[in-house]
Design goal:
single chain, three-stranded mixed sheet, alpha+beta, extended, about 150 residues
Length: about 150
């Protein structure tokens, strides 16, 4: 979940805010490009990558079976006080308006709407496969090293 701000500390812009966003730390708007967190997670080798919105929160759960052993799940949300600040500063509105914004500015992965409107944000499950978790792999190296010393 990307709320596009550092909300827990007052609504500062983040690397994910994108250009032309107003925030408490960018009263004259931002100029930085945003990047796609899904692409970052895929490039880092994540085995499960999904994106949804607060409007569509149940969708991934209904549409797919999650891997049986998710060791870490990253979920972030902004504080209740920061959401309205961000919404007002960017003319999105209050919390219900912001939820509707996500409804109107996202589309399921691979939809025709994305082809017609490339600015839409895709949501759904992007990567889903199982493999040993990093610490499990590392533990095997530690065990191999210990055997080599004896």
């Amino acid at each position: 979940m990307n709320n596009r701000i550092y909300g827990m500390t007052g609504g500062q812009f983040s690397p994910l805010s994108g250009p032309d966003i107003s925030a408490t730390t960018a009263p004259y708007r931002t100029i930085d490009k945003s990047f796609d967190v899904v692409e970052l997670a895929k490039a880092a080798g994540a085995t499960f990558v999904a994106r949804t919105t607060s409007y569509h929160a149940q969708q991934p759960r209904r549409s797919s079976k999650r891997p049986s052993r998710i060791k870490a799940l990253r979920w972030s949300k902004c504080s209740p006080s920061a959401r309205p600040i961000f919404g007002r500063k960017n003319k999105i509105g209050d919390a219900p308006d912001m939820i509707r914004w996500f409804k109107d500015h996202t589309t399921p992965i691979g939809s025709k709407a994305k082809q017609e409107h490339p600015e839409l944000i895709e949501r759904g499950i992007f990567v889903q496969h199982e493999e040993p978790e990093y610490c499990e792999k590392y533990q095997k190296i530690v065990e191999r090293a210990r055997k080599g010393r004896n």
